[in-house]
Amino acid sequence: MRLLFISQTLCLFCYLLTTALVYAETTVVDPAQTAFDKGQFEEAIFLWQKVFAENSQKTPLNIQIKLASAYQKLGFYQKAFNLLQASLTQAKTQKNNQAHQAIILSEIGVLYLSGYQDKKSQDTILENEDNYEKVIHYFEKAIEIALQTNDKLVIAKVLNKQGNLLFIEGNYEDAIITYKESEQLAREAGDLSLVSKVLINMTNTMILEDEVKVTVVKQLRKALYATQKLKASHDKSFGLMALSNLISSEIPDEFMSKSAKGWFQYTALKSAQKSAEITEDSRAKSYAYGYMGKLYEDEKRYKEALQLTRQAVFFALETALPELMYRWYWQWGRVLKAQGQKIRAIKMYQSAIDSIRATNIIDCNRSIIPRLLQTGYRNHDDNFYKTLGKLYFELADLLIEEGDLQRALDTVEYFKIVEFQYYFKDDCIVEKKPIKHFKLPIDTAILYPILLPDRIELLLKLPRDYIKRFVVSLQYDKKAETVDGRVNDKASYFNTQLRHKNTDEYKEVAQELYQWLIAPIEISLNQHQITTLVVVPDRQLRTIPFAALHDGEKFLIQKYAIAILPSLKLSYPKALSRQSVQVFIGGISVPVRIPNANGNAKKSIKLPSVPEALKRIQALYPQNSKKFLDAKLTKSIFEKEMESPLAYTIVHIASHSYFALEPEDSYLLLYQEYLTMDRLEELLKYGRFKKQPVELLTLSACETAKGDDHKAGLGLAGLSIKAGVESTLANLWLVDDRAATELSVAFYKHLQEQKLTKAQALQKAQQELMEIEKFQHPYYWAPLILIGNWH
Length: 791
Hints:
This protein is 54% helix and 11% strand. The protein has 791 residues and is α/β, with parallel strands linked by helices.
């Protein structure tokens, strides 16, 4: 069974995945449980940890399960996983304890689905088929043991979670059947709270299953009334808010009128506010007031929206949770912007972003991004760009309109840091300390193409800290709803056309992109005598070779040396060390096995020109290079060389490497083995602790994933950032290895010229290759791009 990926809109209800895991409640008043019910999870954890610390072996399983639930609420998935695994081991040693075993097994499965990743594998359940088989095992075992108990409540709880699994598989029909079974058993067991959760899950699934209008509306009312009847609690408050969000984001207009939707949302949120007030649950109060503020914002009743949002911020301050702070500061800013108060709006937007950045500064090991997205399951990239991306670019837009171009650039830069953190699932990627007295070289400019829904903003950073703004408005195109969507579509098409080496169909889109991205700034480039253009691309623009943009007469590379910069704040722009250069030269010319997801390895394409390429490159560095070809380039030998005291400044590898849509699927082929990009990163990091770190990594036979997804470009750009390598020279697609050989050798030859930067050396190499008749097409020379430090 293969997991089907679904968008964020298919899973609105984080809280439904991490509800209390308790099987047998006690009649004794538990202050920790009281704190938990109020949403005071930190206090609940503190109290339960005290009980657990006194004697972990004799702590009741109920307490352990509750503690794991509290960990999940705060995003401590690793702690929850470790505790549940220990609890499962303990439960198996106890007689007649199938109930706890079933609950724990299902919760371990849910833990994977809600964002847990094994730090050893760096894979989430949604990204690794082996892990998916694990979660199937957990759920099947949980169902098997639950049925043995004949306990209706235990079976109902496990079935609800089984329904969640079917839901994310896209198997909505079976999910509904499973939820109905769970609902019936929960009613018979008298657990109205579970009935409410199941009904909400079922309602969401019915919408996606295209149930008829009458059925969906009836189900909505049923879920609302069932949830309203519950005793005030944290779960009741969030269940009501989940229903409100469901109405606003998932119910088609033909199912309910605008006024009916508004009434339903208002009723649900008002009940949620009341429940939160009774339980003194600051988290729930913040969300309830904030969502009510959003309802008024949508109705353009900005005065009420502002008042409610302020209350949401007040309660959020009591919790100090960034997922609350950023959300309501952002909403506050939007309302002020709608009122025309742009300066005050900018302050609120900045407060939203500052709350995110402050969390990373305090503890980057506690991943905050999944909680900011408020999704139940990871891998929701659309949601990342619709929430965090939208926040940062709305602020950048405001700052540009107010003429504060430097702060606008800083905002875009900070988003790029967050974007790399999200892609690599590593919140510890932070900006580098700025180089003192760094000045942009007099012949260099940095271009930021900022793609907004209604226009393209080109911000050009020129020498002497001068920033110039250019606005590009595009004619309406009914095929693309937004300007940014249109540019991304064109970039994807350009990438595809360039891979067809026997046609010139790429030229039309090459010229179109040139007119959008380069033509507006060209006069300024000429006025300032710019010869090197550094581009900081966004989204799909990462996947295109800017060198191949065309003005109708010349390619861009014929005018400027070009480099790609992932982020100025993540880079150290400084000159290449040309003294005591040490070069590692490796390559694989023979076919080797390529790994794939189903375990059936296939053979790679042989690269017959690699031996000659390595020989010619070594001839350029005869005294200070080491060569490793085919059987001599094993994983163990490569690891030994990278970990040795010898400080390599240049690492050149001519072997198949692949940057996939997910970082864990990317690899570098060695002799009959492959190296994950995570492992390559670790090995290259050793250079940080040597006198001379790796300054240039060349992957001359690499390629990125095809398609419309820009994420492979993130992996290619982010490798040097994570590994601490100043520059990476790599291909966007696999080309004729003869062309790759000529290009690589020419690059290193020009790199030895003292006055040339890496970008200029690449420019000269590409210009020389395009002069060779059989390599004139940009398919051969354009995909090799320089990422990072261009000096």
